[in-house]
Design a protein that fits this description.
This protein has 420 residues and is of the alpha/beta class. Helices cover 43% and strands 19% of the residues.
Amino acid sequence: MPSNLTLIQLISEQTMQNLVPLLALKPARVIHLATPKTAGRSAHIVEAARQAQVNVCVENIRLSEMPTIPETSRAVLRAIGIERERASIPVVNFTGGTKLMSIGAYEAALREQAVSLYVDTDHQQFLDGHTGPKLNTVLGDDFSFTSFQQTLTVNTIAVANGRERVTDGRDWAPLLPLARHMWERPATELAVHEACYGKGGLMPRGQTPRSPDQWLQLLDRTFTLPVEIARLALEVGLIRPGADGTWQLPDAPRAELQELADSRARNTFVPDYDPRRIAATDLAQFPMTFLTGGWWEVMVAAAFERSGLFRDIRWSAVTGERNGADLEEDLLAVDGVQIACISCKRGGSGGRLLPHLEEFNARARRLGGNFTRRFLALYFPPQGKSGANIRQRATELGIRLLTPADLSKPDAFARSGVRS
């Protein structure tokens, strides 16, 4: 593959058709043609490539708000001419931008007999534009995405879509035996949920303490669990022994919660109070979250892994962007060049799930673009009219619903007619 390549690209709202040629060609330079609305996407694409170990020198060319065919064609013609004067080989990617921009770029490549390509993300391959020398002169004989697919991680794709970072998430493997035990014994799962969130449970109706001193009181409370559940939960540090065969939440966050509670009692200013409080309460709350539904997320993650269709599966990863809030996602994975977002719910009424569908759909698209695969996994799917409404709205949004019965089906996660 020549080392003196310059990739000329059209920038639009979707970024994968611009990122994958960078990863495949590894050009020395890239020229991005964008409108004022899409100009900011250029930096996201270049940063995502950098995280995939592809560093390029970038030049941005600003077009008008609604570029015509002649405007785009002239801009691409100039770029091709300048790069040839630099003894660089120009390659035109006419996939992005508006249709008029794409036609203009293709026309310029054809007029100058330059190499061009089209990015077919659905079939994960490049197509030769046949405007000049063959594409294999710069790409080699493999037009598929296979050679660089492993560099397309959740983080890389998210960064290309404007996210600043995605954490690795939690390791779910140690918790799988406990999750599987819950899965195989529905009556036991109901008993655990009652012990945690029932009327006489540790946190009745799931009401979460609001302050560090309330959390300290919760750490001192005891509750009961089925024997085998308690054994498995103890092995992974979700609980600690209480008195007379009862159990308590782990004591690990106690010192931090006590210090924060004392500072509030003394009315002492703590500059990082909120981040510390959130971290401490998350540590205290995690066992309850897992026992009352987090186990279902782990079972879905294991099913995704068994399918062989996904890679880079992340559980409870946190996504963030500059000057924005951090958001925790249940499950994230990569399918080809797309992020798969999976929201897991133990159950709930259709009234609560309908707005969740809208919120989840918007969050997933912000994370991975319009072609993000979206799944809603429901352990107790609503029945009757509520269930029908959920299914209809999910279909309209392109979100696939998963139930416990789906996890054992080999084709449950395969691509089908449900598309965005």
